[in-house]
Amino acid sequence: MTGGPAPARPGRKLGPIAEDASPAHRAWLEPLRDAYQTSGMTFEQLGRSMGWSRSKISELLRAVGRYPRWECLRALLHALAMPGTSVVALRGLWVMAALEVNKRTLWIKGCVAQDFPNPDSERPVDLNAFQELYKETYFRYANTFLRSPTDAERAVADVFFLLRVVWDVALASANSEQFAWRVLRETVMERAPHRDGYPALVEAAFDSIALRQACDGDTELHQVEESMDLFREVRRLPPDQLDVVVLLYLRGMRDVDVARVLGLSIGLVRSTERHARRSLNDTLFPFPNRSTPEG
């Protein structure tokens, strides 16, 4: 691309970006608009080469209407002869903006899957190491909400597929663990059954640490009843508190391991746990102590 003013061209002029376009949307849209401006092409020329109407091109370049599918953006990038490295970079930014506007991860994966005919080949070495480090915890978290090992495995596989697509963005972020956990959480929550707007967790009462430690029938029955009441309230916690409680109490993890997978300090994990316990104590009954030691 060359600098300097855009060449004069006939036809419709490029209008401004819609005011409600998010910063993440603008992150990939502004380079695309720059590419259009410096190309010297008109809407009519682009429309003929792509088989699109001029209004469709104009709307995409102004962030008007629905968030575009990646296939549409990719076609426009190719029509503008954008280099492959730029296409890859903009694809990652497109994914991040799609997550920001609450597009389902299944929808995002479906949009970009064509770019990865062999998804297991040529994976970044550091992504492979990251996956080996956290995939078991991701699975256990997903299975807590999905209650199906098959569904949990599929969800985690989709998470690591998306992380491959945006791995450069993840590495450039302030905290790769926090970045990846956000993708996991959104993937799991969009697939988990919900009741009254909250994830269904009552079934998890039958898989709690306390229940597994119960040693007789009467104790076990009482523990089931108590756990069902508890998890009816746990599911209403704010997302950060819910995740910490699930990992510490349902999955029996140490706080140091929870801190590592969430990308948080141990102090913040313990503070979040205290806030969750205080909230549950206020609405239910004394929250049980966890069996896993600190540190």
Detailed description of the structure:
The protein is mostly helical and about 300 residues long. It has three domains: about 25-115; about 125-190; about 195-285, Winged helix-like DNA-binding domain superfamily/Winged helix DNA-binding domain (Arc Repressor Mutant, subunit A, Orthogonal Bundle). It has 15 helices and two strands. Strands 1-2 form a two-stranded antiparallel sheet. Strand 1 and strand 2 form a beta hairpin. The longest helix is centred in the middle third of the chain and has 22 residues, at about 125-145.
Q: Gist?
A:
By secondary structure, this protein is mainly α.
Largest sheet: 2 strands, antiparallel
Given helix and strand content, the structural type is: mainly alpha
Cα shape: elongated
Q: Tell me, rounded to a whole number, the average pLDDT.
A: 86
* Rg from Cα: 24 Å
Report the span from N to C terminus. 54 Å
> In percent, how much strand structure appears in the residues?
under 5%
- Helical fraction: 55-70%
Number of helices: 15
Kindly state the number of beta strands. Answer: 2
What attributes characterize this protein structure?
Arc Repressor Mutant, subunit A; 65% helix; elongated; two-stranded antiparallel sheet; 295 residues; mainly alpha
